[in-house]
Amino acid sequence: MATHVSVKQCLAPGGVDLGQTIMVQGWVRTRRDSKAGLSFIQVHDGTCFDAVQVVAPGDLDNYEDIVRLTTGASVRCIGTVVESKGKGQSVEIKADAVDVIGHVEDPDTYPVPAKRHTFEYLREQAHLRVRTNTFSAIARVRHCLSQAIHRYFHENGFYWVHTPIITGSDCEGAGEMFRVSTLDLANVPRTPEGDVDYAEDFFGKETNLTVSGQLNVESYCLALSKVYTFGPTFRAENSNTSRHLAEFWMIEPEIAFADLADDADLAEDFLKSILRTLLEELPDDMAFFQQRIDKTCIDRLTTFIDASFERMTYTDAIAALEQAVAKGEQFEFPVSWGMDLQSEHERWLTETHVGRPIVVMDYPKDIKAFYMRMNDDGRTVAAMDVLAPGIGEIIGGSQREERLDVLDARINEMGLEIDDYWWYRDLRKYGTVPHAGFGLGFERTMAFATGMANVRDLIPFPRTPRTARF
RNA sequence: UCCCCUGUAGCUCAAUUGGUAGAGCGAGCGGCUGUUAACCGCUAGGUUGCUGGUUCGAGUCCAGCCGGGGGAGCCA
Prior knowledge:
The protein is built from 13 helices and 17 strands. By secondary structure, it is of the alpha+beta class. Strands 7-11-12-17-16-15-14-13 form an eight-stranded mixed β-sheet, with helices on both faces. Strands 2-3-4-6-5 form a five-stranded mixed beta barrel. Strand 1, helix 1 and strand 2 form a beta-alpha-beta unit. The structure holds one RNA strand.
């Protein structure tokens, strides 16, 4: 009985012995016939970038069936591993049997034949696009980076915390949320005042899908010291750009007994580590991205990994931008202390000014969230953004306000309802400690890693305004 | 949500100043070949996003609607 071997093992140096009889199972990428009486079938099974060449001799019982194989059909091939007589591969499988598991019903209308397609078209074929070179490579990168992230945290003493997807928290703040409800929309219960009566709803209160696990994970941070979340996140913003999804995955580490400098150090070490892992573990896939998607892909990553991140305060960044303007640099948006940095400013800082990744720290309090720690100057908070050449902001984080009186003052100053924050404030009442963390958008990180231009192509089934197919 | 672009065979695009559609790729068939972005030949395939309007005549001009993309804002 032939052993089932993955295409990856089959093609790996030393993965199989020449002369060994094996079985591979997968899908046909292309088929080429020779009237010399044999057919060449490229079979891929998703385990690696390359497909394996199966050579089917014309004397196979079902050869008529084999020469009708088209791109996308599924096959089980049993044969001997031999040195290839042709160019383009070192080994191939000389088939003793090629069983057709599933033909393609109508090759003329098969949505992803072996030809070039636009990414826009393939988004409409999300259930089949993963059979293409690009999207199977993306799927492997997604897995590899996910594993690298978990491994990095695990090896550095972090615990993965499963913060809730459905949140009853009234204080998450950032952005529009998706409501979670079992109320009958055609017959909504009302209070005597005429408002929607959420007491009748499943949870007895208004609930939403999470926009961030940060507030919850702070709770676990202040007991487990080093924690992180990695899960789906939802924003109901009507954002139609290549960098936004309604459903995306986010990584949010949180460290106790730590300040903003520790946070920046973690961000730098973390990013370098996971990207290094990616280059080490998926060289074939990354070579593909370099060759076909983004010529600078690998160089950009190695430069990123090798460079030390510059640290700079927001105030110094503004000063540098103002000097640049004085020397004639043109920006669409004017530069002044107190404004948020526009992406053109961020790009100038990281690409032109320092020429490597940069961590901008200590932003004006008025443009940042209530939970960020107030600095001694009274006008900036301990926030940071990591900016990278060619992409701009890749990480946003902060040291959290651990002093209850200062936190309360900020909540009141921003007009927030202090009672909504009762449990968050408890964390400051009972054994508070300085702590810090950051958020990283997973699909944006993948865009940086692969050179793919649109996050809709980096998540299997993208959700965007007016689009939730599949 | 705002601005710009766009919607023609399965896919990517053509179609001069409005005169009722072509190519490449893909697919099918045949030829050739230890082939590999194969190559050569033949064939099939379109109510030009939808609705209305202007006109003798609309893929082409106008309006509305629907879809797609890019940018901005928001952010991750």
